[in-house]
Design goal:
Radius of gyration: 16 Å
Structural class: alpha/beta
Order of helices and strands: EEEHEHEEEEEHH
Largest sheet: 5 strands, mixed
CATH topology: Transcription Regulator spoIIAA
Distance between the termini: 39 Å
CATH class: Alpha Beta
Strand order of the largest sheet: 1-2-3-4-5
Length: 158
């Protein structure tokens, strides 16, 4: 696992902060909430997260809990499939954060091309789509109801 690490870039403007996460969330991930100072809005761009293990889930939940206690608003952008799956299985995975956007996985029935599509939280997710490679029909590449379950939990808590 030598090269597997998490990069956390924190930038701030006034009381607002943006955190960009890339890499792997594991027991080695350095997600220190003390590096994130501010009080207003915190935007977390999670689009670069490639994987998360069980120890990483604990690290993520603790980090997000601390961020949610510090900032008046926490927003997550570009939630990748590895985190969507966790959010759909673990009710407190997203804490008080609002999900702005997330990726959905698609696979072409014709050529097998796999792609991710960025969706706004409240978007209607169609049953099929079009392949960017061959213009064939794509289908949702996961168990749809299980994958999207996090939207129901988050909606109920809002």
């Amino acid at each position: 696992m030598g090269g597997r690490h998490l990069e956390m870039i924190v930038t701030g403007r006034g009381s607002d902060v943006e955190i960009v996460l890339t890499g792997f969330i594991s027991e080695r991930a350095e997600m220190d909430p003390a590096r994130v100072t501010g009080r207003g809005r915190c935007i977390i761009d999670a689009g670069g997260i490639l994987s998360i293990n069980s120890f990483g889930v604990r690290t993520w939940v603790n980090f997000l809990d601390s961020i949610c206690r510090t900032f008046t608003e926490v927003c997550i952008r570009r939630l990748p499939p590895v985190l969507v799956c966790q959010a759909s299985m673990i009710p407190n995975f997203l804490g008080c954060a609002r999900v702005e956007s997330f990726f959905t996985p698609w696979c072409c029935r014709e050529c097998g091309h796999e792609t991710l599509k960025l969706q706004a939280f409240a978007d209607h997710i169609p049953e099929t789509g079009f392949c960017p490679e061959c213009a064939g029909e794509t289908e949702f590449d996961d168990i749809r109801d299980s994958y999207l379950a996090f939207r129901e939990w988050v909606s109920r808590e809002s």
